[in-house]
Amino acid sequence: GENVEQHPSTLSVQEGDSAVIKCTYSDSASNYFPWYKQELGKGPQLIIDIRSNVGEKKDQRIAVTLNKTAKHFSLHITETQPEDSAVYFCAAPRGKGGGADGLTFGKGTHLIIQP
Amino acid sequence: DGGITQSPKYLFRKEGQNVTLSCEQNLNHDAMYWYRQDPGQGLRLIYYSQIVNDFQKGDIAEGYSVSREKKESFPLTVTSAQKNPTAFYLCASTFSVSGNTIYFGEGSWLTVV
């Protein structure tokens, strides 16, 4: 099955600076890579995703890049704000169904925005 | 109001007792999932169901059971056979087509004492 590694486990940045979180995956057939944000005591919320037919996707201050050859994808947050403080998870399809069999998650990155 | 509703939010049980967590969705999603989250850990898949009256084991199914009698409902029973049941449990759902967004409920905290 798919294996997803996520780094770093904790990331502290100054407000206004950029943050980058990286993930690697093991199954070269994986084709869908979502990122979730989880606030304390709540369920994860999708913030951005990318499919394997594109290399980059942006949504305002958030971007995701995908390198299929190296099997890694990254989340980029620019101009960080206090409300960006949360735990972020990357994920990849667990089986061949592109996510219908569920997702395999990284262990999460605790992002801390310092004022 | 559309979404995924999990109940109860907090649950305390004595060791050796079975407990059932409820998950209901009104998004007309075909597939539903149960994940377990431990402090500082990622989410691990317990069970999932892609259609009514059918479900499959995930990566950590031992000590858990599910049913899918209705499209909108996917209850999870944590049995006394589950050795470390204290955790945050998350229900999720999506349409059964590759690459569709998986949406999560707000979770249920189970503490076994």
Task: Please characterize this protein's 3D structure.
The complex is a heterodimer of chains A (115) and B (113). Chain A is an all-beta fold and 115 residues long. The mean pLDDT of chain A is 94. Helices cover 0% and strands 55% of the residues of chain A. Chain B is mainly β. Helix content of chain B is 0%, strand content 50%. Chain B is built from no helices and eleven strands. In chain B, strand 4 and strand 5 form a beta hairpin. Chain B is globular and about 40 Å long. The relative contact order of chain B is 0.33. At the A-B interface, strand 4, strand 5 and strand 10 of A face strand 5 and strand 10 of B.
What is the topology?
The complex is a heterodimer of chains A (115) and B (113).
Chain A: E1 4-7, E2 10-14, E3 19-25, E4 32-38, E5 45-51, E6 56-59, E7 62-67, E8 72-77, E9 86-93, E10 103-105, E11 109-114
Chain B: E1 4-7, E2 10-13, E3 19-25, E4 31-37, E5 43-51, E6 54-57, E7 64-66, E8 76-78, E9 87-94, E10 103-104, E11 108-112
Parallel strand pairs in B: 2-11
Antiparallel strand pairs in B: 1-3, 3-8, 4-5, 4-9, 5-6, 7-8, 9-10, 9-11
Can you give me a brief rundown of this structure?
The complex is a heterodimer of chains A (115) and B (113). With 115 residues, chain A is mainly beta.
